[in-house]
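Support request from a user on the community tier.

User writes: "When I paste my C-alpha cells into the form, the page sometimes reloads and wipes my input. The last time it worked, I copied everything first. Here is what I submitted, just in case something in the input itself triggers the reload:"
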C-alpha cells in the first residue's frame, strides 16, 4: 500500500490546501492520501480555530476526493505531535510499501530541525509543494502548486474590517467558505471587543457596558458605553483608544467632546460620556428596547 501524508494546521483550510490534495492524488502513485490536521504545530504557540473545528472543515474539504482520508491521530493526542510519531503510527497500523510526506516549500530550510529528522528521512519520501517561487533542492520531488496564499495571510486579512469579502472567498474552498469567514469574523470581533474594553478599563473608565446589536436593525453590530471621571478624562480615553487599537481598524468618524465622545469603527460604536451626560441621555434604555424589538 502506497500512501501520502499531508499535515498542517489548516487554520483555516484554503484553496492552496485543496490544490495540494488534488495535485497529489493526480501525480503520486498512492492508494490513500492521509490529511492530518495538527492539534498544535510543534513550531507554533497557539491556534485560532479549535482542533475539532479544523478537523470538521478538512472533512468537508476532502469530500470530492474518495482516496483522501482525514487522520485524527494528532488531534486525539491533545498535544503537539512531531511528524515522526504520526509516521510511526501509520506504519504500525497499515501495511505500507511507500510513504510520501508532503511538506510546504517554506518548511524546507528548517527540515533538518524536525524531531528525529534522520530517522524520518529513512522512512518517507519527501514531496515539496511549491509556493512563491521558492527554490527547491534538486534531490526533492516537487508538486507544482500555483496558489500563493497562506493561512496566516488569510487570518491577517480577516482582521481588516473592510477587506473585500468577495476576494477573500476566492481563497477559500467554496464548500466551506461561508462558515470559515463567519467563524473567523466572530473570533475577530470577540478579540476586538475584549481589547477595547481592556483599554477603557485599564485607563480608569467606569461602568463599561456592551450591547450586542447584531440581531437588530441597528446600524452597527456592537455598542460600548463607558463613563469618564471628568471632561479631560474623556478626551484622554479617545487618545488611548487610537493608540491601543489595531492599526487596521477603520475609523469612520471620531467626534471628541468634553462631555460625550463618539468613536465609530464601522461595525462598533463607542460612547465615552461623563456621568452627567450618561444619566441625562440614557442611551442604554434606547439600545435595550431596540434589542428587545429585534
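"...and here is what came back when it finally went through:"
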Amino acid at each position: 500500500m502506497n500512501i501520502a501524508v499531508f499535515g498542517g494546521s489548516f487554520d483555516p483550510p484554503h484553496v492552496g490546501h485543496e490544490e495540494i490534495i488534488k495535485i497529489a492524488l493526480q501525480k503520486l502513485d498512492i492508494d490513500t492520501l492521509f490529511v492530518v490536521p495538527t492539534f498544535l504545530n510543534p513550531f507554533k504557540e497557539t491556534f485560532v480555530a479549535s482542533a475539532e473545528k479544523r478537523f470538521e472543515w478538512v472533512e468537508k474539504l476532502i469530500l470530492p476526493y474518495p482516496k483522501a482520508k482525514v487522520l485524527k491521530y494528532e488531534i486525539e493526542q491533545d498535544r503537539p505531535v512531531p511528524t515522526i510519531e504520526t509516521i510511526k503510527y501509520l506504519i504500525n497500523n497499515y501495511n505500507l510499501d511507500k510513504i510520501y510526506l508532503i511538506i510546504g516549500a517554506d518548511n524546507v530550510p528548517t527540515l533538518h530541525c524536525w524531531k528525529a529528522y534522520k530517522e524520518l528521512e529513512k522512512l518517507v519520501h519527501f514531496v515539496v509543494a511549491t509556493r512563491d517561487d521558492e527554490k527547491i533542492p534538486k534531490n526533492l520531488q516537487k508538486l507544482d502548486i500555483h496558489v500563493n496564499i497562506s493561512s496566516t495571510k488569510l487570518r491577517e486579512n480577516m482582521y481588516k474590517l473592510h477587506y473585500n469579502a468577495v476576494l477573500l472567498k476566492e481563497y477559500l474552498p467554496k464548500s466551506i467558505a461561508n462558515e470559515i469567514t463567519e467563524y473567523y469574523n466572530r473570533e475577530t470581533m470577540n478579540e476586538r471587543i475584549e481589547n477595547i474594553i481592556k483599554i477603557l478599563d485599564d485607563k480608569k473608565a467606569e461602568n463599561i457596558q456592551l450591547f450586542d446589536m447584531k440581531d437588530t436593525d441597528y446600524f452597527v453590530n456592537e455598542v460600548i458605553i463607558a463613563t469618564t471621571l471628568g471632561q479631560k478624562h474623556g478626551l484622554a480615553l479617545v487618545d488611548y483608544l487610537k493608540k491601543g487599537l489595531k492599526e487596521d481598524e477603520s475609523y469612520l468618524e471620531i467626534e471628541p467632546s468634553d462631555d460625550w465622545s463618539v468613536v465609530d469603527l464601522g461595525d462598533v460604536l463607542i460612547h465615552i460620556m461623563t456621568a452627567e451626560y450618561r444619566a441625562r441621555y440614557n442611551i442604554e434604555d434606547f439600545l435595550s428596547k431596540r434589542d428587545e424589538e429585534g
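Agent notes: The reload is a front-end session timeout and is unrelated to the input. The chain has two domains: 2-149, 203-293. The radius of gyration is 25 Å. Escalated to web team.
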